[in-house]
Design brief:
This protein is of the alpha+beta class. The chain is 27% helix and 25% strand.
């Protein structure tokens, strides 16, 4: 019978921490999409600090720029 060892997050390498958190991040992403929300992130298309990608459950993605007011944004590109 295999035993699972426990490792403190304070002693994990960056790769171990990434793998430890991956299932949690994937669940949060899926929960948001299932609730009809979008999932936001930045990638190489986001060339300014105020630019993000909104990804939707149907696969649609929007490149957006945040506005000055809370909740305000402008869609720059849909793909």
């Amino acid at each position: 019978m295999a035993t699972q060892t426990w490792k403190s997050v304070f002693t994990m390498t960056p790769d171990e921490m990434r793998e430890h958190l991956r299932p949690i991040a994937e669940k949060v992403r899926q929960d948001a999409l299932d609730a009809g929300l979008w999932f936001s992130y930045q990638n190489d298309l986001c060339i300014e600090e105020d630019m993000f990608i909104h990804e939707f459950k149907d696969g649609r993605r929007e490149l957006i720029r945040l506005g000055n007011q809370t909740g305000e944004y402008k869609i720059l590109k849909v793909f």
